[in-house]
Amino acid sequence: MDVSDILASHAAKFQATTVEKDIHLDADPGCLAVSDLNPIDEESYNLNLEEHLQTLARDGTQVLINALFSLPTTSSPDGPLAQLPPPVFQLPRAKPLPKPKPPTKWELFAKAKGIQKKRKEKRVWDEEKQEWVNRWGKGGKNKQVEDQWITEVPHNAEVNFDPRKEARDERKVRIAKNEKQQQQNLARQANPRETRKREIERDLVQTRISTASMGRFDKQLEGEKKPHGIKRKFNPTEENAEDERKASLALLSKIESDAKKMRKDPQREDNIVNVRKAIRHASKGKGALAMAGKSDGKGNKRKGKR
Amino acid sequence: MLRTVKPKNARSKRVLDARAPKEVEGPRTAVFVKGTHTGEVLNNVMKELMALKRPNAISFSKKNAIHPFDDNTDSLQSVEFWAGKNDASMFVFGHSTKKRPDGLTFIRLYHGRVFDMIEVGVDKFDSMTDFKTPKATPGHKPLMHFASDLFDSHPRFMQLKSMLLDLFNSEAIDSICLPGIEHVISVSLSPTPASLNTANSAPDGARDTTKPEELPKVHIRTFTVKLLASGTRIPRVELTPMGPFLDLSLRRFREADPEMLKQAMKRPKVTKQDVEKGLGQKKKNMEVDEMGDLRGRIHLGKQDLSKLQTRKMKGLKPGMDQEDGDSEEEEEEPRRKKNKTR
C-alpha cells in the first residue's frame, strides 16, 4: 500500500515550524526576546516593506515560540506554565543591590555558639479563657497579671504592695532593656565617620552658645546658618525644694565622678563569646583547673557504674 | 535625591519598604512626559506606547519645559526629582521643535540619577485604531524581536535594544503562561549602509561618531500572535498587524557613565544552595492548597492487582473448576464455622 499521498496531504494541512536562515536565530526565552543577526535583505525591503517586516517578525517569533514550547512546563488553571531559564541579555539595574543588614550582638553570639533561630508564634493558647490570645500587644499574655481582676499577694508583702504595679514595672524594665540593647546594636553598626561628623556638628553648636551672651553678640561668619531646632527651656521660678536639691546633687556628683575616665574600652567584636564567663558557667564557678580534674573524675565514676 | 524619611507609621513603612532596593527587581515604571510643544502625532505615539506599557506607566498631563540634552538647563534635575516622587526609573519624553520635529527621548535612571538617554524622531506613525484587528490584553507580556546585525555590533543600536527591552520586558520572570502569549514587538532596521558594514568597519570608537543621517532607520511593528496546530507539540505562528507601527530615526544620545554602568550591571551573588535547589524552578510534587497547607504527592510504584483480595466467592476459588458439584456442601460447613469464630 502506498501511503505517500496521505502523508503529503497531511503535511500540506500542517505548515512547518522550522525556520531556515543563514545565521542561526538567537532566542533568549529568559527575557522573551529573539535576535536575528542576519543582514537585512535589501531587495525584499525595497519591494514591499510591510510584507518584508512581517515575514521577518514571523520567522523570529516562530523561533522564540519553538524555544518557549520546548521548555519544561507545569500545569495551572489557566494553561501550561513554561519554566523560563535565567535571562541571557543583561539589563542595567534600576536601583543598587540591597546592602546586607549588619548582625546584632545576639546574632553574632548565636552564630558562634551554633544556636538556631526559633520562630515564636504571635498567638498562644490560653487555658483559662480557652482561646488564642496575643503573646504581646492588645490583650497580650504578657499583661495577664496586670489585667486580671484579682491577684494573690504573698504573706510577707508590705502594706502598700501593689501586685499590678509590680508586674507592670517588671514588664517596663524588660522593654527598657531591649531598647537599650537595640541602641547599642545601632551604635555598634554605625559608620564611625558618620558618628564623628554628628559629634563635631554637636560640638560646634555647643561652642557657639558657650559665650557670655550665649552667642548673641558674636560676630557672624559669612555663610553661617542659625542653629536649627534649638529651643530655650526655662525652669519654673518656683520649684519643689526636694527636686532642686536632687538636681543640684546629681550635677555635683556628675562633675566629681571619674566615670568618663574610668570607662573601659569596648569589647572587641571578634571574641563575641566571653570565654571567662563561659568557663565560670560550665565549671559552676570552680574555674578551668577544676573542670580539667573533674572530667577525669567523671570518667572513673562512669566506669564504676558499669 | 529626596530627603530620606524615617517612617512614622506602618503604612508609610510599607510604602518605603516597597521602594527599597530589591535583589530581584520588578518591572520599570515609565513616566510619559510632554514637552512645551507636542504635535498630534507625538501625542498619539505616546498614548499608544503607554497602552503597551500599562499598567507600569504614569502619564504627566501638563506640559513641562525641559530639554534633556541641553546641559545649561537643570532639566535632568527635574527628571531625577520626578523619578524620586513617582518611584519611576524610566521616562519617555516627547517634544517637537522646528529643528527636530516629533522627537521622542527615552531616559533611563539608576539609583535616582540619569543613566543614559536616547532620542529618536518619529518619521511615520500608524495608530492602533488604523487596523481593525483584535488587540492584545493590557498587562500581558510581549515577545520582543530584533532583526539586524547592528543590534549586536553598533553601540547606538545596542543601546536602543537595551532601552526598548527595558521598557517592555525588564522584569525577570521565572515562568510564563503559554496561552497568555498574545503579541510581539518587532524592531527591525533598514538595510545596513556600506559605511557601517563589518567588511570595511572602523574601530568601535570611530563608528560611534557616524552622523545620525547615515544610520539606518528603525521600524517598530507590533503584531498579535496566532498559534496554529502543526501536528507537533510546537505550534505554527501566524502574525496579524496590531499597531502601533512606528518608523524612527536616531538623533541625539547620551551614553552611560562607565562607573555608573559598572555599578548598574552588578548581579546578586547566587548561593550554591540556591543553584542546587533550582533557581526559580518549582519544587516537584509539592503544592500549597487553598487552606494554606503544604501537600505532597509520593510515588508508590505499580500496584500488583493479582494479589488483590476481592469479594470471596465460591466460584472463584482456585481449585473450583476441577471439582464436582457434590463436594460443595461438604466444603461449605467448615467455612461457616470459620466466619463465626472471627
TrEMBL record, chain A:
Keywords: Nucleus, Ribosome biogenesis
Gene Ontology biological process terms in this record: ribosome biogenesis
Record region (Disordered): 176-245, 281-306
Biased amino acid composition, Basic and acidic residues: 191-205, 216-227
Highest taxon of the lineage: Eukaryota
Cited Pfam families: RRS1
Subcellular location: Nucleus
Major location (coarse): nucleus
InterPro entries: Ribosom_reg
GO cellular component, one term: nucleus
Family that this chain belongs to: Belongs to the RRS1 family.
Cited function: Involved in ribosomal large subunit assembly.
Entry protein name: Ribosome biogenesis regulatory protein
Record organism: Amanita muscaria (strain Koide BX008)
Automatic annotation (TrEMBL), chain B:
UniProt superkingdom: Eukaryota
GO cellular component: nucleolus
Chief location category: nucleus
Residues of the Brix domain: 28-259
Disordered, as annotated region: 1-20, 264-342
Keyword annotations: Nucleus
Pfam families found in the cross-reference section: Brix
Biased segments, Acidic residues type: 321-332
Cellular localization per UniProt: Nucleus, Nucleolus
Record GO terms (molecular function): rRNA binding
PROSITE patterns: BRIX (PS50833)
SMART domains, per database record: Brix (SM00879)
GO biological process: maturation of LSU-rRNA from tricistronic rRNA transcript (SSU-rRNA, 5.8S rRNA, LSU-rRNA); ribosomal large subunit assembly
Feature: compositional bias, Basic residues: 1-13
Residue spans of biased composition, Basic and acidic residues class: 271-305
InterPro entries tied to this protein: Brix (IPR007109), Rpf2 (IPR039770)
Family: Belongs to the RPF2 family.
Record PANTHER family: BRIX DOMAIN CONTAINING PROTEIN, RIBOSOME PRODUCTION FACTOR 2 HOMOLOG
The protein, known as: Ribosome production factor 2 homolog
